[in-house]
Specification:
Elements (H helix, E strand, L loop, with lengths): L3 H8 L5 E5 L7 H6 L3 E6 L2 H4 L6 E4 L11 E6 L9 H14 E10 L11 E5 L2 E12 L2 E10 L2 E9 L4 H10 L2 E6 L6 E6 L5
Parallel strand pairs: 1-2, 1-4, 2-3, 4-5
Antiparallel strand pairs: 5-11, 6-7, 7-8, 8-9, 10-11
């Protein structure tokens, strides 16, 4: 699970209601539930959601999500903010803004400074391994990243486009969606707490 549940627990009120966008198979969902959070888990893959237990689940693309409620915490992890298409990135951030309470916050995981260097590399997670296999440029400002998730009983692979963002570009994208950085939560500045700006984007 990495340090994601620890970051969330330190950054938000205990037992807060969390909207987790792009939950996958519940790698972060389940630890958050064990820590007393109420989680609504969103993913566009019904196969991933079948592996999520104990949380309310919603099958939807993040950009199209329209729940008639707001949440204490909206969580956008897995470096999704680095979507290779700017319109997709803005769709993700606008979904965050639509669903965060006026006194709530959005927690966003962004790439570290060396994310696209030192490849291949491995990172241990409970019960398995995440391996960044390749990371190559495909057009100016966009890279193709291939990742393997290795467990004793299965192996998943994922290839996605990633757009590296300077801190200035990242904060500008937030502002365009009606959000502003409140704090960088980790020493490597990969986790950010953002607050809703007055008014809607």
């Amino acid at each position: 699970m990495g340090d994601e549940p620890d970051v969330v627990e330190r950054a938000v009120p205990a037992r807060a209601g969390v909207l987790e966008l792009g939950c996958g198979a519940g790698r972060v969902t389940h630890p958050l539930l064990r820590r007393g959070f109420t989680v609504t888990a969103v993913d566009e893959s019904p196969h991933m959601l079948e592996r999520v237990h104990g949380a309310r689940t919603v099958c939807s693309p993040i950009e199209a999500l329209e729940l008639d409620e707001r949440f204490d915490v909206v969580l956008l992890g897995s470096f999704l903010v680095h979507a290779g298409v700017p319109d997709v990135r803005q769709g993700l951030l606008r979904a965050c803004r639509r669903h965060v309470a006026d006194d709530g916050c959005v927690l966003i995981q962004r790439e570290g400074e060396d994310w696209h260097e030192n490849v291949p590399r491995d990172r241990e997670i409970p019960g398995g391994l995440v391996r960044v296999v390749s990371d190559v440029p495909v057009r100016p400002g966009v890279r193709s990243v291939h990742v393997e998730y290795v467990f004793p009983d299965t192996r998943w692979t994922q290839t996605f486009l990633s757009c590296p963002l300077t801190p200035e570009a990242f904060e500008r994208a937030l502002a365009e969606a009606g959000l502003a950085v409140d704090a960088y939560l980790t020493d490597d500045r990969t986790w950010v707490r953002a607050l809703p700006l007055d008014g809607r984007p």
